[in-house]
Prior knowledge:
- Residues 156-177 are annotated as: Disordered.
- The chain has 177 residues and is an alpha+beta fold.
- It has one domain: Roll (Hypothetical upf0131 protein ytfp).
- Helix content is 23%, strand content 28%.
- The chain has helices spanning 8-22, 51-58, 104-114, 159-164; strands at 40-44, 67-72, 74-79, 82-87, 93-101, 118-127, 138-145.
Amino acid sequence: xxxxxxxxxxxxxxxxxxxxxxxxxxxxxxxxxxxxxxxxxxxxxxxxxxxxxxxxxxxxxxxxxxxxxxxxxxxxxxxxxxxxxxxxxxxxxxxxxxxxxxxxxxxxxxxxxxxxxxxxxxxxxxxxxxxxxxxxxxxxxxxxxxxxxxxxxxxxxxxxxxxxxxxxxxxxxxxxx
Length: 177
């Protein structure tokens, strides 16, 4: 087909497509955070359910407001004396507390506290007293086990027992909590 019979707009689009195919994408600068922080609820099921522990980890001046909540489709195993959240059956509930993380610094402190054995995962967070048909849901995040399965053992975590044994929040990497 003769180039002159193709409308100019189509020729420009074809030329732009060819140019785009021949161009290498610009590399991302790792020093730039491309996803801006936004406040978000996090579901805690272990030591961070304790307001004093969360206050220490986040270096807060006031006791944090925690909401009694639960998540569906998970179960708990233990990594030493600490709980590990794992994917489970849809009808299985894990109870805990939710907290709205207020800053990137706080999120960074939580990630350091949880260590590289856990990863952040999206989840639906329900009020603790809601039934299975509840539509009252917060979409948030939690820390899911990301270590090896053989590092875990069967068992339940009791915050009361953990506190009664005199445990405290461990220091985060490079921090002097």
